[in-house]
Amino acid sequence: MIGVIGGTGLRKIEGLNITNESLVDTPYGKPSDKIIIGKLDNRDVAFLPRHGDGHTIPPHLINYRANIYALNTLGVKAIFGIATVGSIPIAINPGSIVFPHQIIDYTYGRDHTFFDGIKNPVSHIDFTSPYNAKLRELLCKNSSLEDMNFVKEGVYAAVQGPRLETAAEIDRYERDGATIVGMTGMPEASLAKELDIPYAAICPVANFAAGRQSSKDGITHEEINKQSEMMSHNVSKFLKVVVEAYGN
């Protein structure tokens, strides 16, 4: 079974047959929402809305441990995380889809590990490559759809939110080597790694980051939501291709 964590767009994928909705309880509490289970091209898919019903859970309060644990309980063998981001360099325009290969974690105060010495013994996973190479290869190999701009590498700056960043913070992230910025990339990626579930991110770019290009004088959530809505069809279309190609 393939797991997808993201917005509500999966329901709109042509050919998706939803068979069940399951609210899985875990030792870490309840996940963000019911997990939607269905079939796409005879492949089992489990979809979890990261921010809950109606987008009510802010990034720093998402129960990432429960989300990943619940998908693992259902037998998910690979996870694609769909996460909207802002672009730092001019070369990555809004409307693009980025497949990050690295991540820098600027978040704090989140329950970020299963190996906390309480429920599980302390363990130090190797996180040199945060995203699964085979899943990234699958994404890159199928990234030739018409009218879509794909960027096959990127460094994801995972920030706390829910506020957007200052222009100076974006300058700092660029000096650190980041190319995109978002609020949900961590600890989702590392928790999947701890449970040995292959994980890769699909990052639609909704806007230029603070102080850059069209966002030079500021950003509004209305702008982000408008661009995200425009991109939802492309993301769903691409995800359908990826799910169908998985395992072939």
What is the terminal separation in angstroms? 14 Å
Which structural category do the helix and sheet elements fall into?
Answer: alpha/beta
- Strand runs, count: 12
Largest sheet: 12 strands, mixed
> Could you give me the name of the CATH homologous superfamily?
Nucleoside phosphorylase domain
Shape descriptor: globular
* CATH T-level topology: Rossmann fold
User: Uncertain regions: pLDDT < 50 for 5+ in a row?
Assistant: none
Give the topology string: H per helix, E per strand. EEEEHEEEEHEEHEHEH
Total of helices: 5
Q: Give the rounded overall mean pLDDT.
A: 91
CATH structural class: Alpha Beta
Assembly state: single chain
Q: Which percent range describes the beta-strand content?
A: 15-25%
Total tally of structural domains: 1
Secondary structure: helix percent: 10-25%
Could you tell me the radius of gyration in angstroms? 17 Å
Level-2 CATH architecture: 3-Layer(aba) Sandwich
Q: Which terms would index this structure?
A:
alpha/beta, 23% strand, globular, Rossmann fold, single chain, 25% helix, 248 residues
